[in-house]
Structure formats: C-alpha cells, structure tokens
Specification:
Pathway (chains A, B): Nucleotide-sugar biosynthesis; UDP-N-acetyl-alpha-D-glucosamine biosynthesis; N-acetyl-alpha-D-glucosamine 1-phosphate from alpha-D-glucosamine 6-phosphate (route I): step 1/2
Radius of gyration of chain A: 16 Å
InterPro entries (chains A, B): Acyl_CoA_acyltransferase (IPR016181), GNAT_dom (IPR000182), GNPNAT1-like (IPR039143)
Organism (chains A, B): Lachancea lanzarotensis
Family (chains A, B): Belongs to the acetyltransferase family. GNA1 subfamily.
Structural class of chain A: alpha+beta
Strand content of chain A: 25-35%
Catalytic activity (chains A, B): D-glucosamine 6-phosphate + acetyl-CoA = N-acetyl-D-glucosamine 6-phosphate + CoA + H(+)
Largest sheet of chain A: 5 strands, mixed
Helix content of chain A: 25-40%
Distance between the termini of chain A: 44 Å
Oligomer: homodimer
C-alpha cells in the first residue's frame, strides 16, 4: 500500500503557494506569464466556486498540493466537480493538471494524489470520476484504480 | 455547410424545458428520478455559476437546446468552462451530454450543436475545447473539427 513519505502531507492550494505551484506545473505544460496577483485571484475564485449537492454546497474546484517535510510543494493536482441532469442530477469529478516535481519521482506521489482526489470526489457524491491522459500513462492510471472508457478529443483555434 | 432546418433555433436551456430535456437526455443514458423542482434548481444553479475570465465574469455552465419550428426541444448539450493556472490562467471548455432526439437524426443537429458550443467556448476565451466520446463516434467528432488527443479513463465505486 502506498503511503506518503514521513513528514509529507496533502492540503488544499493556498495563495502563498504561488511560486512553488507555478514551478511544479512547468513539468506538465506551458504555464505562461502567471503573476502572483493572477494566481491569488484564481485561488480565490476556486475557493468561492460551489456546486449544489443535495442540500449542501460543496466546492466545485478542489486544487491540492503535496508538501514535503520542509513544507515545499512537490506535487499538485485538482478535481473539478460538475453538476449534471443525467444520473439523477448527478455529480461528476474531473481530475485535472496532475504534476509531480522532477526530483520527487518514484515516491508514488502521483498515485497518492490521484487516490486522494478520487476519494474526495466520491465522498462529495460523484457517481464517477474521470480524467484524460496520454496513451503512455494508461498503465499508471490503471494502478490508481481507473479503467479506459473512451477517447479524448480536442478543438483548438 | 450545415445549417439548421427552417424554423429551428438554438438557445440556452430554460426551467420550462424540464419534460422535453429529460426526455431527450434518455437517448444518452439513465436520467433517473429528476423531478421538476430538481431540474429547475439545477438550471438556476447553472445560470448563477460564473468563471472569472480576465476582468469579465462569464457563465461556467452553458447548457443549450435546439428547438424545432413548433418550439419542441429536439437536441441538448452543454459546455462547462474551467479556469486553470496553466496556459496563463487559461480557460478550457468541456463539451458534455450531447443528445439528439431519435426522430431527429440525420438533420445534422448534433454537428450544429457541437459547432455552436465550441464557438461559444472559444469566444469566451477558451484556448481549447475538449470532449470525451466512444471510439465509434470519433469520425463524427472529426467532422465537427475535433481531433483525437488522448484516452478517457473513469473510476466508479
């Protein structure tokens, strides 16, 4: 069973994580010119976005980080919760933007973060949690308990 | 070029569309016990959910219907707009829950709805629009201007 290394923990992203989250996300793709103000505004927007789940209001955006024993951000990822009409006005979790710092590979941080976000989404009431990945990462996500179910397609201008 | 049949139009979902939208969605999957009250509450929640896009607030949920010349709902679909940190705090559109009434197939309503939602998302500022589909529908979405870019995976309890 995978467990976090001693001293590591998982928590929601906070505005003070600006530099370390931006640095961690660069492993994944182009981050671009994200200023501290834009980052903080985004985190504030995420914190204030809710979804109606039965009689409760839950958070739509659930961005998290894993921090190491020194409190440094070493991984990040999120799950966005969507409300539908189908499946009895069901909720679906979308796992997005999983990134692990290059010097932290091999510690199962990606697996632990996926499992954490997946559980969070199910406990919030999601009937399913989905994610899109490259063909080469299918085996990794299968280890996280996911199974192949469709094709992702995109449209760019 | 695909155009809507005479008298048909595309507009946002309204609370009064309850019965016809629920009926149309049954083509897609299990809708379940969605009462009028739950439907109306969901539409109200969708209408009030916003995303920060630069200095503007845009709608996060963009559920639409195509109605025929008699005003009956004959197709439905939505695009959810997500705010990220990557790509300069970029926006991504998620096209979801496209359904066309069985007796309306062959009129290119699915294609027209996808093109409409895709354009709406790009005009709102999305750098890409994505969707997940079955392998057998890849050719259809390619006609809509999409290309295969990854694998969809899911996790269910």
């Amino acid at each position: 069973m995978a467990v976090l290394p001693p001293g590591y923990s998982i928590r929601r992203i906070e505005p003070r994580d600006y530099e370390e989250v931006v640095e961690t996300l660069k492993v994944l793709t182009v981050v671009g010119d994200v200023t501290r103000a834009k980052f903080e505004e985004t985190v504030e927007f995420w914190n204030n976005s809710t979804v109606k789940a039965g009689n409760a209001e839950i958070r739509a955006y659930n961005p998290h980080v894993i921090v190491n024993a020194e409190g440094r951000v070493v991984a990040t990822g999120t799950v966005l919760i969507e409300r539908k009409i189908i499946r009895n006005c069901g909720l679906v979790g979308h796992v997005e933007d999983i990134a692990v710092a290059k010097d932290q590979q091999g510690k199962q941080l990606g697996l632990l973060l996926i499992q954490y976000l997946t559980r969070l989404a199910h406990e919030a009431g999601c009937y399913k949690v989905i994610l899109d990945c490259d063909e080469k990462n299918v085996g990794f996500y299968e280890k996280c308990g996911y199974r192949r179910c469709g094709v992702e397609m995109d449209h760019r201008l």
